[in-house]
Design brief:
The chain is 41% helix and 20% strand. The protein is globular and about 80 Å long. The chain has 3 domains: 127 residues, OB fold (Dihydrolipoamide Acetyltransferase, E2P); 262 residues, inorganic pyrophosphatase (n-terminal core) (Alpha-Beta Complex), CATH 3.90.1640; 99 residues, Roll (Diaminopimelate Epimerase, Chain A, domain 1), CATH 3.10.310. The protein has 19 helices and 18 strands. The strands form 4 sheets. Strands 3-2-4-5-6 form a 5-stranded parallel sheet, sandwiched between helices. A 5-stranded mixed sheet has the order 7-8-9-11-10. It has a 5-stranded mixed beta barrel with strand order 14-15-16-18-17.
């Protein structure tokens, strides 16, 4: 039976508590727990609630509000009108491959001789590079559209100009102080960019460029919505915030996929992974579709994924989907082996001294899975973690972080040790000389230590609670409203509730391999009892048994979900943690 991680429960703070009853009253006496969850998501008025529950394409912003969009749309329209060759330059992850497929398909559909280039993770590394530009020049391309990369490619942009090739950059990563010179640099995160929404995925930025180009061509920009299936896959898999435009795009995509089957490649992947696009969710994309697309770039070459997404024959699509499924299985096996080794190394580092951050290096680790393992390290040790391997004589790696530490800022304080780096608040990539790894380990440890100074629980995993709720409040209306909070994802996660003074009904039990999971039924003062399941909470069986034996009530942190078993669907509590109430 697994051991239990100790969590701190933190009730999220509402800026103005008086707004909660106001929004509850405005929405026909909505239960206070749901009203509080809405306010935490910035929904404080009836009008905001209407937009939140009914996001539509009318809420999308004009693409021309993005800096350089005029120049970008003009140049792409010119390439279409003049029949130029265009090279789409992408990245090897899900966002990069979906972006590449979107732009390539758009250009080809308008008669352009378009091709794509995805750098090899192992040969080229991340981002725009000279090898790809040379390929464009040899092929006779007059224009490169770099998507999901390029915002830091100052030297490479200059090299493209030397080759007589125009460059458009569509990126969404944090912009550096010195940006590349290009025909257009589209990135909502540019400090001077006035675009109202800053959190689009790379594929989302490409979608905006397609809309703008259609407008320049005198075509209907809504024709771009045929690419929403790709935008949805990238938005879910790249873990971008699911509010604002991303929420609109995801809702529109799900509605479209339920009415009209997505492209053949995605349908073939859905067959392989056993999901139904009539009832697709962000989680199902993240845990089934995304890993299979990612596996190509991690283990072999990402062109396999782009070919699948561009497939126009179902037999070919199914063949490519089966191959990606096989590659993903190989990736999982390699992931487990490297994870076990990384955990051993991390145990040694943590035993030697108190560490604020983990930096692990092994020359032979597979570059394609170290990012995944870095995430596993964060889950296990609750520290910012960097996994490094050696490629082409340099240490290359991936960083992941905890909520209390912006890893991009932490790496900025170490940039003199790095050859290059880039990323987000919680994830980053970097390259550095191997001899600098020990110095990075010590520097990052010190920097993170300063960042968490005065935050005693910075490294303790936290369950952020939206609201307290009475079990009796959870009825059909409660669930009907809560379902409309979807799609769920970063900054719009499933609400977590806490119920108190609970009793176990019947006999709790553990289920699953190694008794890892916990199933039980819960009740409170005559309210209808509810089934509950806690994945990974098998170690809490003794807590529930003690509650029954001694008559001690417990409190439960949980989310709500539907469970279908033998054709019957019921509402169940998805337990996140539980604690006895002995106070």
């Amino acid at each position: 039976m697994p051991s239990i991680t100790k969590y701190q429960w933190m009730l999220k703070e509402v800026d103005d508590p008086s707004v909660v009853p106001q929004i509850a009253e405005a929405l026909n006496d909505l239960p206070e727990a749901l009203a509080r969850a809405l306010v935490l998501r910035g929904v404080t008025t009836f009008e905001a609630a209407r937009d939140y529950f009914r996001p539509s394409r009318e809420h999308l912003h004009d693409p021309f509000l993005m800096q350089d969009m005029d120049a970008a749309a003009d140049r792409v329209a010119q390439a279409i009108q003049q029949g130029e060759r265009v090279l789409v330059y992408g990245d090897y992850d899900v966002d990069g491959t979906t972006s590449s497929a979107l732009m390539t398909d758009f250009l080809r559909a308008r008669g352009v001789e378009a091709d794509y280039f995805i750098p090899d993770r192992f040969e080229h590394g991340y981002g725009l590079n000279k090898a790809g530009i040379d390929h464009a020049a040899e092929w006779g391309a007059r224009l490169i559209i770099a998507i999901d990369c390029g915002i830091t490619a100052v030297e490479e942009a200059a090299y493209a100009r030397e080759q007589g090739i125009d460059l458009i950059i569509c990126d969404h990563h944090t912009a550096p102080k010195a940006m590349p010179e290009a025909v257009a640099v589209l990135d909502p995160k540019r400090p001077e960019c006035g675009y109202p929404f800053k959190e689009l995925s790379g594929c989302g930025v490409a979608f905006k460029l397609v809309q703008a180009t259609l407008a320049r061509l005198g075509d209907d920009p809504e024709h771009a919505f045929r690419y929403l299936d790709l935008v949805a896959i990238s938005t879910a898999s790249d873990i971008v915030p699911l509010h604002g435009e991303n929420r609109v795009l995801m809702r529109e995509a799900f509605a479209r996929m339920a009415q009209e089957p997505p492209r053949l490649g995605l349908r073939a992947l859905a067959e392989q992974s056993g999901i139904d696009f009539d009832d697709v969710t962000v989680d199902r994309i993240v845990f089934t579709i995304g890993p299979r697309i990612n596996a190509a770039g991690r283990m072999q070459h990402a062109s396999q994924a782009v070919d699948l997404l561009l497939a126009d024959d179902m037999d070919e699509a199914r063949h490519l989907a089966r191959e990606l499924d096989r590659v993903n299985k190989d990736r999982r096996e390699l992931d487990r082996a490297i994870r076990d080794e990384a955990f051993r190394k991390a145990d040694l580092q943590m035993a030697g001294r108190h560490r604020h951050a983990l930096v692990l290096h092994d020359a032979d680790w597979h570059q394609g899975v170290i990012g995944i393992v870095a995430s596993r390290l964060v889950e296990q040790f609750h520290r910012p973690s960097i996994m490094l391997c050696t490629a082409n004589g340099a240490a290359k790696g991936s960083a992941r972080s905890v909520n209390a530490v912006n890893i991009y800022e932490a790496l900025t304080a170490c940039e003199d040790l790095l050859t290059q780096f880039g990323g987000h608040d919680y994830a980053a990539g970097m390259t550095l000389p191997e001899e600098n790894v020990p110095a990075l380990r010590d520097r990052l440890d010190a920097v993170v230590g300063e960042m968490v100074d005065g935050k005693p629980n910075a490294f303790m995993p936290t369950i952020e609670v939206d609201a307290h709720v009475a079990l009796s409040d959870i009825d059909e209306r409660f669930w009907a409203v809560l379902k409309q909070f979807a799609p769920f994802g970063p900054e719009n996660m499933k609400p977590i509730f806490v119920a108190r003074d609970l009793q176990v009904v019947g006999r709790p039990r553990t289920v699953g391999k190694s008794d890892a999971h916990l199933k039980f039924r819960v009740g409170h003062d005559g309210a209808p009892t509810r089934d509950a399941i806690g994945f990974g909470l098998g170690g809490h069986l003794a807590t529930l048994q003690r509650s029954q034996r001694q008559g001690v009530p417990f409190k439960l942190a949980f989310s709500l979900e539907e469970n279908t078993w033998r054709g019957r669907t019921t509402l169940q509590l998805r337990a996140r943690d539980l604690q006895l109430q002995e106070d």
